Amino acid sequence: xxxxxxxxxxxxxxxxxxxxxxxxxxxxxxxxxxxxxxxxxxxxxxxxxxxxxxxxxxxxxx
Length: 62
Ligand code: SF4
Prior knowledge:
This protein is of the alpha+beta class. The chain is 24% helix and 26% strand. The strands form 2 sheets. The protein has a two-stranded antiparallel ribbon with strand order 1-4. A two-stranded antiparallel ribbon has the order 2-3. It is globular. It binds iron/sulfur cluster.
């Protein structure tokens, strides 16, 4: 599973970084993904983070 953040949409609320710090990290004023592939044990948390992003800036590719 892969995940990406649309930097043009992200508002930098930090929600995803707080929820799954092993996958998302703040990079200046926006979040970015710091892994190539999402580890199996974090996939549910990443899906939840994508669903919780207030501006739908997180894209998950199964
Ligand atoms: S939850 Fe969405 S808006 Fe907030 S930092 Fe993450 S990607 Fe950006």
